[in-house]
Every structure is written in structure tokens, then in C-alpha cells.
Write a structure and sequence with these properties.
With 174 residues, the protein is of the alpha+beta class. It is built from six helices and six strands. The structure holds adenosine-5'-diphosphate (ADP) and magnesium ion (MG).
Length: 174
Amino acid sequence: MIDVIVVAGARKRYGEKRALDGFDLRVERGTVHGVLGPNGAGKTTAVRILTTLLRADEGLVRVAGLDVRTHAREVRRRIGLLGQHAALDEDLSGRQNLEMFGRLYHLGARRAGQRAGALLERFGLTDTGRKAVKQYSGGMRRRLDLAASLITDPEVLFLDEPTTGLDPRGRAEV
Ligand SMILES: Nc1ncnc2c1ncn2[C@@H]1O[C@H](COP(=O)(O)OP(=O)(O)O)[C@@H](O)[C@H]1O
Ligand SMILES: [Mg+2]
């Protein structure tokens, strides 16, 4: 069994505030793993460390077999992230957002277009793909955000509170 995520003894403080105080986690490849905790428990901090956006003060953190501290670039190539807050451009259409993400991840224009089309279809957004995101409902936005996090077909996908703020129907959609 290969663990795609391994965290051992991770610590992180912001000044005097201890956000993570000996965090351990193992996640098997090919599984969906949820981490629960109240507001302020350190979930976003953990996600930020796992996705190389933040450095742990101490501890071992490996993603897809790579140490996030020494192999941040390689880790970034293999992961997707759906942040706690949407990262969409409101004035662009759904399709344009996905194509932009594709280009930011260095997919060529053709490949970015293909991925955008496939993901719009997969998330039931083909019909609305040409509308500006500011006209989207909460559930549609989150679905598009999720589609964007999958643009590179990542090996590991991190979702930080993917359904917070959505009504029951929006949650079910995501
Ligand atoms: N940039 C920061 N500076 C200072 N304190 C922070 C910062 N980010 C988070 N914290 C604090 O660290 C703790 C963990 O926060 P966070 O990881 O966002 O928790 P969660 O995502 O589980 O709600 C909280 O007490 C929060 O106030
Ligand atoms: Mg959080």
C-alpha cells in the first residue's frame, strides 16, 4: 500500500499562536480522505502546507512520494487545490476561466481548450459555459472552481471546505 500523503509531527505557529501542534496524517493512494475540525482547528493551515503555499516549522510532509520542503515545484506539478475561497474571475465566462487556468498551468492553447470543454461537460456546465461567472449560482460557481482544480488532471486533489456556504442542493451538486 502506498500512502500518497504522509504527515508526521507537523508544527506551525503564527507568532504565539499554535495552529498545528504535532499533526499526523496518512492517506492511501486512490482514496478520499476527510479531515474534520471546528473553525480555527488548523485545517486550512494543513492544506496550505501540503500544497507548498506555507512551510511547516517542524515535521515531515510528503505528497505523492515527495518532500514538500525540498521538492515544492515537483509537488505543485502533481496536485490540484480547491481553496476555501473561490479563485474565479467574475467577468470571464466559465469556459474562459478554465482556459485561463489551463494556460496558467502551461497547457498549450489547444490542450487547455480541450480540457475546458471536457470539464464543463463533466460538471454539467456546458450550457452555461459561455455566461459570465457573476451570473452563476453558488453551486455552479463551486462546481466550476472544482473543475478548475482538475484542469491538469492532478494525482492528488486538495479541497478546503468545498461545500461551505452552499444550500443543500448546491452541496449535493458538488
Ligand atoms: N496568517 C495567520 N496569522 C495568524 N494566525 C493565523 C493565520 N492563519 C491562521 N491563523 C490562526 O491559526 C489557527 C488555525 O487557522 P486555520 O488553519 O485557518 O483553521 P481552520 O481552517 O481549521 O479554520 C486559527 O486560530 C487562526 O486564527
Ligand atoms: Mg479553513
